[in-house]
Design a protein that fits this description.
The complex is a heterodimer of chains A (291) and B (416). Chain A has 291 residues and is an alpha/beta fold. Helices cover 29% and strands 20% of the residues of chain A. Chain A folds into two domains: 151 residues, Rossmann fold, CATH 3.40.50.1400; 130 residues, 3-Layer(aba) Sandwich (Rossmann fold), CATH 3.40.50.1400. In chain A, strand 9 and strand 10 form a beta hairpin. In chain A, helix 6 runs antiparallel to helix 7. The longest helix of chain A is centred in the middle third of the chain and has 17 residues. Chain A is globular. The two termini of chain A are 33 Å apart. Chain B has 416 residues and is of the alpha+beta class. Chain B folds into four domains: 96 residues, no CATH class; 101 residues, Gyrase A, domain 2 (2-Layer Sandwich), CATH 3.30.1360; 79 residues, 2-Layer Sandwich (Alpha-Beta Plaits), CATH 3.30.70; 56 residues, no CATH class. The longest helix of chain B has 15 residues. About 5% of the residues of chain B have low confidence. The chains are: A alpha/beta (291), B alpha+beta (416). The structure holds iron/sulfur cluster. The site of iron/sulfur cluster has 12 residues of chain B, from helix 10 and helix 11.
C-alpha cells in the first residue's frame, strides 16, 4: 500500500489557507492512485508531528505544498516528521532542484519519500499558465498579453526569488506571451510598479503563492492599484495606467496544482498509473479550487 | 435498543469459502469464540471439519455438514469474516487471531462495538448491534449497526443530537463532510483547535462503512484514534513542554524562556476540559508535573499543540516585562466590575449576557459606562498613563503592528 501525504502551512486564523490543500487532496483521492491521501499542517491538525501515524500504508510519499525551498522544507517539515538522517545536502539543490530523498520516520518506523516543494517543480510552470487561462477565460491566452509571476521575495530566503525567476524564464522560453516578468512584493523589481514593466495593454498577474490570504487578497491588489481598499474588491480586468490588469490570485488555488503534487510523488517512485493524465483533463473544466 | 433476540445473518458463499480456505490451508480459525479447523486438531489437516463456538462443538463434519454448521452459527462466521477480511489488521498469537499492534482503525472499531472488552458473546453483540451500539468520542456519538451479512454500518452525530430525529438533522453520506462541519462553530467562527468543545450540532453522517467512519472521525479529531490506541498499548510518545519548546526554531525559538509557573498557566488557560477535550499527558518535563487538571477526555494530548506554542510566543514577550506599581482610582464596585469583565471574557460568557442585564458587570452598557467614566481620551484607565512619562509604549496597547496585523495567519514567518 502507498500513501500520499500533502503537507502545508495552514492557519490558526482562517480556513482559506488550507482549503486548496484539501481540495487538491480530494482531486487526487478521486483518481484512486493512492490507497490513502492525507493532509498534515504546521498550524492545523493533524499536525506534521502526528500526520504519519494516521497513515496505514508502508510506503509514504510526502509532498510539501510550499512554493520554494527554505525554512519549512529544509528544517521544519523534516524535523516535525522526524525523518531520521535528514540533512539538506541530501537534496543536493541549488535552490530549485530538490527532487526527493527516502528516509525513515522515527516515530512510525516507515519509509518516507520526502519530495521537493511543488513550487519548484517544472510542471508548476504549466499551472501558472493554466491560471492565466482561467482568469482570462481564454485557453489560448498569450498573444498581445504580458505575464507577471509575483513572488514574496525576502532577504531571508533567496530561494523564494529563484523559484519565481525559474518559472518566468521557462514561460519566456515558450514564446507564448509577448512579455514575461518576475516581480516581487518585498524587493526590486516591485509589483507596485507593474505597469512600468510592460508595453502590452493586457497583463496577467499570477502570484506564486499556495493559498489566498493577506498577501494575495489585500497587499498585492492594493499595491498594484487595482483597488484603494481590498474590502471593496476589484475588477478583473482592472484598468491601471492605461493597462488592463488581469489579477489571478494565488496560483495554488488552481485545480491543476493536483497534477504537480502527483508529479512530485511519481518522480519519487510512486506508482500512479494514468493519474497524471486524468487529473490534467479533469482539472481543465473544473472551477479553480478554493474560490 | 439492545435486546436478547437472536440476530442470525445470512452467510454469503464468499464468506463461507473464506472459512473453508482457512480450515483447509491455514491453521484454522480461533477468533471471538469461534474455532474452526480441519482434522481432529488444528495441526492435522486430514479428516472432517470442526466448528466450535461457546454454545457447542461439531466435529468430523463433511464439507456440506460444515457448511450447514457454519450457516447455523452465521453470526460467528460473519463476525470473523468482517474482522479478518474486511477490516484486516488481525495477527495470530498463540493460535488466536488478535489485533495487530498499531492497527488503530481495527482497535477503534472493536472499541466502538465493545468487542474489545470480551464481555459479550458474538450473538449478544449482534443482538446489541441490531439495535445500534453507541459510544462517545469527544463530542461525537458513534453508532454501529449491522447489515444483513454481518457487515457493519456506522453513523456519526453530535452527542447533543443523540435523540434527535433524522428529519431534524442535516444528513450527509460523505465522510469528508466532517471537515466542513468541523471548520466553523455554531456562530460561524473558525475553529483552529479541532478538539475544542465547540463542535456544532444539527447534522448526521450516515451509511459509513468501516473505513469511512474512521476517516470521518479522523477529520473531526485528527490523530486522536492513533494516539488513543498507542496510549492503550503503553506506547504513547509524550513530548513534554521542555523538549517541545527546545525543539522550536524561527519565531518560536523564544518560548523556552517561559518559567514553569507560566507553563502551568498556559495549561490552565488552554488545555482544561472547558477549552480542549484532549486529556493533557504532557507536563513541564518528565519529573515536574503541571498543576492544572489533565481533563477527563478519552483521547490523550501528547505534546503542546501549535496553537499553544503560538500563544506561548506571545506570552513569552509579555512575560519579559517587569511589573510596575500604578495608582488607579476606582470605586469598590468598579474594581469588582473589572474582575467580572475579565472573568466573562475568560469563560467565553460575553455572548450570553443579555443586552439589558445591567446587573452583570460585563454587560455592554455597564462596560461602556465604566469606560466613559474612567478612561481618558487616550484610553488610559483612570487617566493613568502606561508609561510614567506619558509615552504610549510597551504591551499595553496590544503589541506592535507587525504582530497584530498578522492576518495571513501568524505567521510572520518567511514565506516560501
Ligand atoms: S496542547 Fe492543550 S490545547 Fe493543545 S491539543 Fe493539547 S490539551 Fe488541547
Amino acid at each position: 500500500m502507498q500513501a500520499l501525504v500533502i503537507v502545508a502551512h495552514g492557519s490558526h486564523l482562517n480556513a482559506d489557507s488550507s482549503a486548496p490543500t484539501r481540495d487538491h487532496a480530494d482531486t487526487i483521492r478521486a483518481v484512486g492512485a493512492f490507497d490513502e491521501v492525507k493532509t498534515g499542517f504546521w498550524k492545523e491538525e493533524p499536525s506534521l508531528r502526528e500526520v504519519l501515524r494516521t497513515v496505514e500504508s508502508d510506503e509514504i510519499y510526502v509532498v510539501p505544498l510550499f512554493v520554494s525551498e527554505g525554512y519549512f522544507t529544509e528544517e521544519v517539515i523534516p524535523r516535525e516528521l522526524r525523518l531520521e538522517g535528514w540533512d539538506v545536502s541530501k537534496w543536493d539543490s541549488d535552490g530549485v532542484d530538490a527532487d526527493h530523498v527516502s528516509l525513515t520516520a522515527a516515530d512510525v518506523g516507515k519509509t518516507v519519500h520526502y519530495c521537493g516543494p511543488v513550487g519548484t517543480h517544472e510542471s508548476m510552470t504549466d499551472v501558472i499558465i493554466r491560471r492565466a487561462e482561467s482568469v482570462t477565460g481564454d485557453p489560448d491566452v498569450g498573444e498581445g498579453f504580458g505575464l507577471v509571476v509575483v513572488g514574496h521575495g525576502t532577504e531571508r530566503n533567496e530561494n523564494s526569488a529563484k523559484a519565481i525567476h525559474y518559472h518566468a524564464e521557462r514561460i519566456r522560453d515558450m514564446d507564448r506571451f509577448d512579455e514575461v516578468r518576475a516581480l516581487f512584493m518585498d524587493e526590486e523589481p516591485e509589483v507596485d510598479d507593474v505597469t512600468d514593466h510592460f508595453e502590452s495593454d493586457d497583463v496577467v498577474v499570477v502570484p506564486l503563492f499556495v493559498a489566498d490570504g493577506f498577501h494575495t487578497q489585500e497587499d498585492i491588489p492594493e499595491d498594484m492599484g487595482l483597488t484603494d481598499d481590498y474590502r471593496e474588491g476589484y475588477d478583473v480586468p482592472a484598468e491601471v495606467d492605461g493597462h488592463r490588469i488581469w489579477y489571478a490570485g494565488a496560483v495554488g488555488t488552481e485545480g491543476l496544482m493536483a497534477d504537480v503534487i502527483l508529479e512530485r510523488a511519481a518522480d519519487a517512485g510512486a506508482e500512479i498509473g494514468e493519474a497524471i493524465e486524468v487529473v490534467r483533463e479533469r482539472t481543465r473544466s473544473a472551477p479553480a479550487a478554493g474560490d | 435498543m439492545a435486546t436478547d433476540a437472536e440476530v442470525r445473518p445470512d452467510l454469503p458463499a464468499r464468506q463461507f469459502d473464506a472459512l473453508l480456505d482457512a480450515a483447509n490451508e491455514g491453521p484454522g480459525v480461533q477468533f471471538d469464540g469461534l474455532y474452526v479447523h480441519r482434522g481432529a486438531e488444528d495441526y492435522d489437516r486430514l479428516g472432517g471439519y470442526t466448528l466450535g463456538t461457546p454454545e457447542e462443538e461439531r466435529t468430523n463434519l463433511s464439507e456440506s455438514e460444515f457448511h450447514a454448521a457454519a450457516a447455523a452459527r452465521a453470526e460467528y462466521v460473519t463476525n470473523w469474516y468482517f474482522w479478518r477480511h474486511v477490516v484486516g489488521g488481525a495477527e495470530r498469537r498463540g493460535g488466536v487471531e488478535g489485533d495487530a499492534p498499531r492497527h488503530h482503525r481495527r482497535a477503534f472499531l472493536r472499541w466502538v462495538e465493545r468487542a474489545d472488552d470480551g464481555d459479550q458473546t458474538v450473538p449478544e453483540r449482534y443482538a446489541a448491534l441490531a439495535g445500534g451500539v453507541s459510544r462517545e468520542w469527544g463530542q461525537l456519538r458513534v453508532t454501529a449497526t449491522l447489515g444483513p451479512a454481518g457487515e457493519r454500518r456506522y453513523e456519526l452525530r453530535h452527542v447533543d443530537d443523540a435523540d434527535a430525529s433524522l428529519d431534524d438533522l442535516d444528513a450527509f453520506d460523505d465522510p469528508l463532510a466532517a471537515r466542513d462541519v468541523a471548520t466553523y462553530d455554531e456562530k460561524g467562527r473558525y475553529r483552529p483547535l479541532k478538539t475544542a468543545p465547540t463542535l456544532r450540532s444539527g447534522w448526521v453522517i450516515r451509511n459509513l462503512d468501516q473505513r469511512a467512519v474512521v476517516q470521518a472521525v479522523d477529520a473531526f479529531y485528527p490523530a486522536t484514534i492513533a494516539n488513543w490506541n498507542l496510549e492503550r498499548a503503553g506506547e504513547l510518545d509524550v513530548s513534554h513542554w521542555d523538549e517541545t519548546a527546545e525543539r522550536q526554531t524561527g519565531i518560536y525559538d523564544v518560548v523556552d524562556e517561559l518559567s514553569g509557573d507560566a507553563v502551568d498557566r498556559i495549561a490552565e488557560s488552554c488545555c482544561v476540559d472547558s477549552q480542549c477535550l484532549k486529556r493533557r499527558m504532557w507536563d513541564e518535563n518528565e519529573e515536574t508535573e503541571l498543576g492544572p487538571e489533565r481533563g477527563e477526555g478519552i483521547f490523550p494530548c501528547r505534546e503542546p499543540c501549535s496553537l499553544v506554542i503560538a500563544a506561548a510566543r506571545k506570552w513569552t514577550t509579555l512575560e519579559r516585562e517587569e511589573p510596575r506599581t500604578y495608582e488607579f482610582e476606582l470605586t469598590p464596585s468598579e474594581k469588582e466590575q473589572l474582575e467580572e469583565i475579565v472573568d466573562a471574557v475568560a469563560d467565553g460568557r460575553i455572548d450570553e449576557i443579555r443586552e439589558a442585564d445591567v446587573y452583570d458587570g460585563a454587560n455592554r452598557y455597564r462596560a461602556r459606562y465604566l469606560r466613559a467614566k474612567r478612561f481618558d481620551e487616550e484610553g488610559n484607565l483612570s487617566g493613568t498613563p502606561t508609561e510614567p512619562d506619558g509615552a504610549d509604549a510597551g504591551g499595553g496597547s496590544g503589541g506592535d503592528a507587525s504582530e497584530s496585523g498578522e492576518a495571513d495567519g501568524d505567521e510572520a514567518e518567511p514565506a516560501e
